[in-house]
Amino acid sequence: xRLCILGGxxxxxxxVYRALCRGRYAGLVDDLVLHDVDPVRLAGIAAVLADxxxxxxxxxxxxxxxxxxxxxxxxxTGADVVxxxxxxxxxxxxxxxxxxxxxxxxxxxxxxxxGGLSYALxxxxxxxxxxxxxxEVNPGAWLIDFTNPAGIVTEALAPLLGERVIGICDSPIGxxxxxxxxxxxxxxxxxPPLGSLAGVDYVGLNHLGWLRGLREPxxxxxxxxxxxxxxxxxxxxxxxxxxxxxxxxxxALPNEYLFYYYFAREAVTALAGSRRxxxxxxxxxxRDLYPALATAPDPATRWEAARRAREEGxxxxxxxxxxxxxxxxxxxxxxxxxxxxxxxxxxxGEPVELIVNVRNDAAGTSAVAGLPPDAVVEVxxxxxxxxxxxxxxxxxxxxxxxxxxxxxxxxxxxxxxAVTGHDRDAAVRAFALHPLIDSAHVARRVLxxxxxxxxxxxxxxx
Length: 462
What we know:
20 helices
């Protein structure tokens, strides 16, 4: 079996490779093809893979063969599964996304708000071209997307690839696992790869969802007791992030990215007060790291130290001063485990239950009531050789949840329309309608500044 990773010079690639060498997924992949437009990043990550402890010893005889290429068609040809983890514009593009939003008094974040829309306007055209190439040279391949913003990108690709594209994110299943552990539940969601989600009521879009129920096999819902127990809530990140008071009012556990909606003012203030944005911190760390990886005597050690430092800074603005991330969250095992679980399911036909991004009507009727049937939603799904199908249909969000979901989904669809229809008015609507952009005048100005910073954006409308 051949796996192709687009964005093969990406920081998380060694986590995927390590998981393919040992444990549940060992032997599943024979050939691993890494594609990237940056040969320096490719060389650095290839050096890390060659140096990973234990990856090539007698205990790991199933390590896949690794090759690298900057030729997209060559990378896609013959692949059974394609992982897409791209960042059009690179890390510096992320810095611009953040800084331009902040200059207008808006949230400076990678995937949420104005910065997320700018990122999407760069990601969607690139990913649609990749999908068209894949459909031409290798129509039987599966595309598992974690190019951000994953929900928007998956929605843009679904008309081109149908059920053969699945969008993933590790935030929802991470929330489920942490909440289940805090209740003392012995749910199979804590066992590899993810187990059963039959008792999990999670509804949302990518980076915008709520855990609304954790039911035992006998039907007992353990979530209300958790929400009423401050000590248990303070034992995991989302409980500390949102606090017992707000969680008690909401009656649900929000995805961590809802911090930017429920605490928008605090988030803007915290980010504006930081000496560096998250993107600037990562850009500075990687500027010298990648060239050094290819020639250093210990590339795997250097990569691991950099990876851990990067994880420690994740969503730092949502934590109180001095608060450290839980050790389990620093260890990795998020995206790559979800991606590999989905890959194994579509290849072998052995079903797995995952929270993924999929068309609302993939089960034949809408999974989330009140949203368009062809909209991409993030819900618990059964994934097997046919693709991903929601476990439940007709799920009714609360009025508050539906209002926010509908508002953000309208924005997402305007972004896709802007790209596919070469329609700048649709882009203006996306910025003006976003709940975290509080002025239509500011929306126009921030879009104009993104167009000035990214020359590819004005060309979208020409």
